[in-house]
Every structure is written in structure tokens, then in C-alpha cells.
Amino acid sequence: MNLETCIKLDRRDELADLKNRFIIPEDVIYLDGNSLGPLLAIVKERVNDTVNREWGTDLITSWNKNDWINLPVTVGEKIAKLIGAAPGQVLCADSVSVNLFKVLAAALTLRPERNVVLSSDDNFPTDLYMAQGLTKLRGNDYELRVVDPEEVLAQLSDSVAVLMLTEVNFKSGKRWDMKAVNTAAHAAGVLVIWDLSHSIGAVPVELDHCMTDFAVGCGYKYLNGGPGAPAFVYVAERHQDVQQPLSGWMGHVRPFDFRQDYEPADGIRRFSSGTPGIIGMSALDAAMNIWEEIDVVSVQQKSESLATVIRERLRHEAAFSNLELFGPGPGPEGGSQISMRHPNAYGIVQAMIERGVIGDFRAPNIVRFGLCPLFLSHVDVYNAMNRMAEVIKSKAYEDPRFSSRAFVT
Amino acid sequence: MNLETCIKLDRRDELADLKNRFIIPEDVIYLDGNSLGPLLAIVKERVNDTVNREWGTDLITSWNKNDWINLPVTVGEKIAKLIGAAPGQVLCADSVSVNLFKVLAAALTLRPERNVVLSSDDNFPTDLYMAQGLTKLRGNDYELRVVDPEEVLAQLSDSVAVLMLTEVNFKSGKRWDMKAVNTAAHAAGVLVIWDLSHSIGAVPVELDHCMTDFAVGCGYKYLNGGPGAPAFVYVAERHQDVQQPLSGWMGHVRPFDFRQDYEPADGIRRFSSGTPGIIGMSALDAAMNIWEEIDVVSVQQKSESLATVIRERLRHEAAFSNLELFGPGPGPEGGSQISMRHPNAYGIVQAMIERGVIGDFRAPNIVRFGLCPLFLSHVDVYNAMNRMAEVIKSKAYEDPRFSSRAFVT
User: Fold this and answer.
1) Predicted ipTM?
2) Does B408 touch chain A (CB under 8 A)?
3) Final residue of a structural domain among B267, B292, B317
4) B292-305 residue pLDDT tens
């Protein structure tokens, strides 16, 4: 694997031109689009328009005139197309955490005789935390049971109401077989909630086909919706009669009648709560447009191809002898990230950031690179590995400034 | 009350120049800042900077470099100054609805032997809806009791855990006496949650002085934070040991350790849930800066003065004979809005909007004008009343296009 090979691969890459849609500093190789997707030019324009024309000029009339009132559904439908959901099942709203609370509470009401929420101990922490909050609120009868991922299927039983999993693991990149899990869970009468935060925009997802019950996911990673972009929630049509407890006015059947009693809207709208943040949601709305031109299967294929550059170099170069691949990486069993263990992971990531290659660190010892095919080339990945080799050879990671860890998300 | 008087009043107005900070179309008189505050030039600049420099250029490193990680606290502290809260008690987060759920659930755990949530039947509906959602989730023991506002204090008893009120009513503009209510409630062992959505930025609020327990409020009305701007939550220091159930990772003591178990952060941070929307929160952060120059007492005084223009004209002009003042209007017992009943309220509001005067309608028959002193002059209000007189005299409100009501917020 050398530079020439990478140049050739880039020449054959059908997605290569998409990177021109993004505004990324020229001296940066950005391997963290799986944590915060970069800025699309169309998003920059849209935020300008939302702020200046819609808010600044049309003011309050924008709720009708510029259809702010339907934005959660408009964006939801764009997201739906990317995750194999028929219309009417996806809504853009709130954060992943808050949406998870809604669907978990709703799912529990569908299994009133069962009292266990099951999850894996490598699930993304906020999912576990929200389930802890909800089970505690529901009282002593409810229990969050967190087990080793290998044990999950064996733990399905008639006391389990809901199984809650993140499809692609945030550290290892390992991907569950959604259809197989759903089938096993449903056979035991268990409902499943999927967190798609690290799947959407990275790998093909087929929610309806897999008979998925509920899902949530993130707008600021592979969807490039901006920092803290609103999240989404999917509720299969067959479950939409259920009520969720964060029953704010935007989920009311007639919010502007200002009635005293809550009466939920039909369908997915009842999963709305308070007033949505319009600027952030407009940014995500614009960012979704790029998916009209792209097949996510090609995206996944390119991500595998980018990963090959890393895998080959790890295999053959002495500088990387202490780096150990962690998780499957891009491919049928993995998401679009590649994770590596190294005793000096934190320092390596920080030293690389100073050299213009932005990846991230996950405790305790993981270097994580997001291989986002929309804006990365094989040459980018090749050059990033060069930079990493330099950091390791020079021991730049030993810089005392990297001894205490700052927040990095 | 004639034009000349209004011009004189404007000449003496110390807040008159502030309107130059806003970007409002020249042909518009905007009487809906109490529903969606208009765009400040400083906010426009800040959103540009957040999108282009912070997100576009600094990318993921902005969580540290541009202190996104502390933004909820930074904005919270600016809000705190406006509502008489000492530092460490206010956080910017989520929506009013979601924040209300957090504090109501938390408050109930402080009164475990009590099972009633008390509120007034004229409270803002989403507050009632959220309480309905929570009490239903908590089970049959819990009850939301909604009574006539006149009956609220008489209903305080040792079965009531929490009293939940909106300080300034969204329809009538009527204002509760916060200190008196808190005192009566506390004497009965009842905790109080105040919704400040229609108070903050309109009237002086003194949460600590009034011994307030909990409060929530809105960022997109008098704070001019933008459409669907994030909300805020106040928790008195003495109650901050309590846990709220929407326990997402941003409220964890060490979110980036990614531990399996939730351990709440000390203080107000534990009222965070998921990842905050940074673009929207940055807009509100910038909008808050104007309050460093303004005393909210002067704001309230000007609002009273603006209301005098309306009151005088209603009293003396035949065109307004079918308009009936509803609620106290600006003054010691009211917020910064003036509400009027008219059988053709909806048509009047719509016809005025077409003539460049934007107010709003509240079911079933209320014309509501927000008198926001930061950008309105006495002449503006005078001219708005002229426009209203024209609409009423010409019966422009009878236009068949106004027969069916569209969404207006």
C-alpha cells in the first residue's frame, strides 16, 4: 500500500467529488466525522437563510409561511429514507437521550407484565443512564439489566420487556445483526430499541425490513447536521397508538387550541415534546439533501476501501507494531470507524491533532478514526497514517501537555 | 393621546436607541416579541461565527477550544442575573417542556408521602400536559389537580407535593405574586415550580429573594434567542442533591469517562441530559449580552408607558368599542403584553399582519400584543392602533381567507 495505489483508488472513486461540498480547512485531515460531521456549504447557506430571511424578516409568520411547524416531520421523512423506514414513522426532535427515554417508556407500557430492560455493558453510556433514570422513576419493580454483549441473546426471557442496543458500538465499531436480534427478541416477546447514532449515514439500515420496533439516532455525526444537531426517533407504525410520557404541546393533536387536557396527535407527531430548535433543525434539514444523490451501499464500500489503507499499513510497518486493531472495522460486521489500542493513545491523538490530523481518543487506550467516505480520500487516510508514524517514531505523544486529559467528545 | 404626545414620550425614552440593535423589516411593527423575539445584529454575527469558525474551522476541537462544553452553564449564568438567582443555580438546556418534566420529577422525590401536583386551569397547556405525562408514568397514586386560579391557594394541603404555576399568564398577562404564593405553599410543606416563560426579560424576577424552589423558562420570547431557542432551568441550591430522571451523559460527573453507571455531576449540571444544540444555544448566548446594559425595572416601566397609549385610545375611540381589555396589562399585576377580547379577533390579527402589524391571536377570541420595550416606540404602538382602527372600520377582518385558522404560535 503506497501513495501511488491510493491515488489510483481515488481516481476510481465515484464519491470523490462530494468532498467539494464541504468546507473543511485545507491543512486538516478530518477523521472525526463520526463524532461531529463537518460543515457542508449548503448548510452554511441554509443557516444564513433561516436566520436572516425566515427569522429576521418573516418573524413569527415563519411557523406557517416557512413551514417551521412541519419541520420535525419534513426532516424525519428525509431521515426515514436513509434507514429503510416507510413514511410516517420518523420524527426529528430533541436529543438522542431524550428520545430514548420517550420510546423506552412507551415500550414498557406495551409489556406491562414484564419488568426488565436488558442492554449490553458496552452500550453507549447515555443510553444506559437514561434507562437507569427511567427504571428508577418507575419504581422498584423495574430493573435495568446490563450484561456482556455475548450474553444478551441468552438473557432474553419472559421477564424482559425491552432490549436496548446500539447497532454499531462507539468504541469497537462492532455491529449487531439487527434482523437476527429482532427475530430472537420477538420470539421471546421482547421489544427492541435500536440506537442508530453510529450507523445512520455509515451503513445500510433497513428498519422496516428487520421488523424493528423503535429506534433513535443522532444528527451530528454521519449526517453532518452540526454540533448538537437534533436527534430522531423511529416508531414502527404498529406501535404508534402507544403514548410517551414527555407529552409536550407539540405532540398534541391541536396544539394551538390550548386545551387543558393532553390529546396526542395521530402517528409519529405524538413523539414531539416542546418547541423544536428551528435553526439547528434547519441545518440538519439542509445537510440531509446530500443523501438524495448517494446510495449508502456505495458509502459503506468506500469506507471498507479506506480501511484497507490502514489495515495494510498496520500489518507491514514497524512504527505501528504497538497498535492493535480493536473491533472489526468497516465491513459487514462493523461501522465506518476503525479503532486501535495503544498504551499512549491519548498522547498520540493529541499530537496528531496538533499536526492537522483530527481523530479521537476513547478511554482508556483507544485511538478512533472515523472513515467518512463523503469527504475523505484514500490519499487523506494514507497521509494521516504517515503523520501517525511520525508521532510514534518521534515519541511526540510523550509531551507533558498531554499528561492530563481535557474533555474531548 | 395623539401622535405628538407619543413623539414626546419617545424623546424622553432612555431605551429608545436599543431598537437599532435589532434587524426588523422597516415596514413592520412587531407586537409579537413575546412569542418570538426578533433578530439582534449581534446574534446574526454570532451564528455566523459559530457556524463558520467554530464548527467549520475548529471542528470537534471546539468542545474545548471554544468552550462548547460549558455553554449550558455560561448561558445559564447570564440568565441567572436576570432572574435574581445567585451563581450555580441556572442551566440552559432542552425545551421548557422537558425541563419542567425534570424538575417536577425531582420535586416529587422530595415529597415522597404526597401525591398531588397542583396547578391552575389557565396554566400554559404544555405545562399541564407534561405533568399529565409524568403523573401517569408514576402510576395511579399520583394525581394532577387543576383548579381555577382563584382556588389555588385554598387547595394547598398536606397531600400536595408540588404547586406548578406560570408567573405571567400567556393569555391574560396576569401575574402571580411569587413571594406570597411561595410563602403560602411552603407553610403547607408544598414545593413550587414557576414557569417564567412570559416573565423573563419583561418584569423583574427575584427567585432567590422569593425563596423559589424550582423554575423553568423560555429563550425565544423576551430573550430574543431565536426560534425554538433552548430553555432554562433553575434549581435552588438547597434542592440540588435531588436527582432528575432524564439523566443523560451531559449531566454525568465525568461524561467522557464513559462509565457504565450514572453518577450525577455536582450542582446544576446534573439537570443536563443529552448533547446540547450548540448553534441555537450560541444564538441565545449572544442575545443575552444586551441585558448587561439594561435594568429590567426600566424595561417594565417603558412597557407600562407603551400600554398607556393603547389604554387611552381604547377608552376614547368609537372604532374600539367592541374591544374589551382582558387581564391587567403591563403594571404591577401584569406582564409585558396587553390582551383584548373581540368577536372577530382572529380576522383582526390576520388583517393587521397583512398591513405590517404583527400581533397574535389566542383562542377563542383574544388579540394579544406583546409590548417589548427593547425595540418598540410609543409611535410604533400608536401607529399599530391606527392600523387596527382601519381594519375594524373597514371590516377587513371579514375577508373569507380568514375563516379557517392556520397554525399561529
Assistant:
1) 0.96
2) yes
3) B292
4) 999 999 999 999 99
